[in-house]
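User: My advisor, Dr. K., asked me to get a structural model of this assembly before our group meeting. I'm new to this, so sorry if the format is off. These are the inputs:
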Amino acid sequence: MSGSTLEEHRAVERIVRGAFGALTGRRGEALWYAMMDDTPVGVLGLAAGVRGLRHLSFVRGEDDFLERLLAEHGNVAILKSAELDEVRRALDRYFAGKRLDFDLAVDLGDLAPFHRRVLDATAKVPAGRVATYTQIASRAGSPKASRAAGNALHNNPVAIVVPCHRVLRTDGSLGGYGGGLPIKEWLLRHEGALLS
Amino acid sequence: MSTSEPLISAPAAHRIALLLAKHGEELARHIRRIVRDDDTAQDLLQETMLRAWKAVDRLTEGSNERAWLYRIATNASLNHQRSRSRERAALARHAAELAAARDSADGRLGDADRVELWAEVARLPERQRLALSLRMADELDYEEIAARIGGTAAAARANVYQATRRLKAKVREV
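Assistant: The format is fine. Below is the predicted structure of the whole assembly, which you can bring to the meeting.
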């Protein structure tokens, strides 16, 4: 053990206090996470706070997802939960093709205002339909900011549920996707927005 | 938490945060089952994670980190309970005196006998009491009990057997 041992000692104490407060429901806010290992689009990491879903990410595995959560939310307790059932069930229904739209609380509270407006506009595109980056930029109040809208969509923390995969280039080509283009294409075909 | 200062300042604390994220909930439940008190459980979870942090370099890739943490948590909790055993023994004697002072002539398991039975549970060695609780309350199999309190499945079975035999003898006696 080298370096700032006392500092680390204090860090560990604070981590545990934060986690325990959240576990006993006595104080503090926590980010609860769960894994879905076996979906048609690979491994998904889910994370939610009290106000709703905050992350739905394509990840390599649990450690990969946790590293990302810790990097982004190092100051709140992060704990594995068996309680994200509602989200899992909604995703199961989605992948089974039984219900392609989501009625889940999503918390985008810590994003910049434009980023949020872009994702809010995207959330209104129904399954089976698509929109263009330009249309989304314009619905977010900045018609000329299609490139910025594209960046905002690329940094969508809640994939699938906020359907950034339904946003395409004006010429109809797929554009980009954080989870990789094959997944974007799979999702659009699954929703019937692309002809096989 | 009100501070925006990141908690994870250095690599070992980072690993502890990962371990706590993955196993914190069940470890807290496990510790609370042993000590049955939230404040004590928080202290012991903290002690568990501090011990883990000090030894985290020895946790090699591919080793069973969950079992490792359970062992640390069990040992920390049992040590804590042992340090309280004198106090508990005094309580048990007091309960037994109470029981003896009452009349149980009607032959049924009355309040006084129940008190005495609980006193006997309190007098059980820690590992026996814990094994019994995991077996009876949680209906775990002996492999799982062993994974949580350490030792082999056979030892866990022996602990449950000894505890049950002792309690049965007590019931016959009253």
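One thing worth pointing out at the meeting: The radius of gyration of chain B is 20 Å.

User: Perfect, thanks a lot.
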